[in-house]
Amino acid sequence: MNGIDKERRSVQVAIVGGGIMGTAVARELSKYKLDILLVEAEPEVGWGTTKANSGIVHAGFHEEPGTLKAKYCLPGNQMYPQLCEELNVCFKQNGIMLVARNEEEMETVLAYYERGKERGVNVKLLSKEEVFAQEPNLDPGIVGALYAPEGGSVMPFELAAALMENAIVNGAQLLVDNPVINAWSEGEKKYLETPTTIIEADIVINAAGLFSDDLARMFGDDYFSIHPRKGEEYLFDLSLHGLVTSTIFPVPGKLSKGILVIPTAAGNLMMGPTGDNIETKEDLGTSYDGFERIFEGARSLVPSLDPRKIIAQFAGVRAASDRADFIVEFSPSVPGLLHLSGIESPGLTAAPAIAVDVPRMLEEAGYKLEPKENFQPRREGVVRFNELSRKEQDEVVKQDPRYGRIICRCESITEGEIVDAIHRGARTLDGIKFRARAGAGRCQGGFCQPFIMQILSRELGIPMSQVTKSGQGSEQIMFEAKELFEDEVLS
Known about the structure:
single chain, alpha+beta, FAD/NAD(P)-binding domain, D-Amino Acid Oxidase, Chain A, domain 2, Arc Repressor Mutant, subunit A, 3 domains, eight-stranded mixed beta sheet, five-stranded antiparallel beta sheet
């Protein structure tokens, strides 16, 4: 397809990147009378760094003073309870515990405690006895800790999807499966070219994560660079639920906050991540060396962790900038190009606060924003069937019998929940897994995948051979040997 044949679209604001940063900005700007288009390379939002991060909502005591990370982390943390309540996203404010394994580390913990108090973070120091009264399964050698009760955990891909869904309800548009392959400016206008579309915009917001420096260079902007840093993570099954209740941090290292033990918002425990500088942005491989480092670090915090309970491993790549800080600023050479780059840890926490700052930055740059009178902040509720009482379940099933049919046995996810996820935007097996957790349990989809494929085929009106795991090229079957009927699969 050449440029002449491509669809042409003109918008006021084009956001490049559908991770937690881009979707948060899309929702925030949808509060104003703006024509907004978010452009995402993947088949669905939240599939880059967002889907593979630890899901921690940081408390705000870790970040170096004077950095943008410090500026945005605490206000972002404070926004999470209301934001997740409005969007009907699971947020568990389970607290963060920074533990010391000797008196030298305790001095470092004390320094973080003082830093937290100066910033207004709710922090407290715990003696050894207080630590074990709260977390009895930690290593006996731990001598004390800092505890921040307002730290928490969220499912980051679920939040990104919810942010985008709400933005769309409020008028924003979404273009997926369209990586930006070229970009340029002509006067006050900026242009983005994708495989299918040429987009003209007054404002381009660069939230392209790992590839934000590539997008900047397309515009002739070459004043920052992204250096990928990989983090491997390992997920345990639900049998370890409750082994620890807080997110357990060691004293941080130079490249990362260390190997953590993380109770996820979904109820699993997770351990990781590593923090390895890598050459290739697309390197998502895990390794035995990574596992050994993670397991050794996690066992030094929680000795009873059992490797036989691991059900999944994955890696994410963080967009570390050459400044070792967030980049939140307009391009010095391209008017109307706003960079939101280098959004690594604590980017998930900070993203809502950065997004709130974007309208202010646009207005200070001379763009007039008019608030909507009818902005709808609430997302229609998601039914989480296994969290309902028996009476509530009976009522839901009466209204829609599909909620009475369990598809994913590991996670007790119903056909109704899967159909709802599809109607909210899921188009792939991974999209269903991320939104509804079908396929996220012990068997990792070994039992339920054929059923989910059948539902996707039916709801999307496509043959089974076109159902993919994660977009084009990940089809699960090459051809249909015979016609499949719904009652064969879903009976």
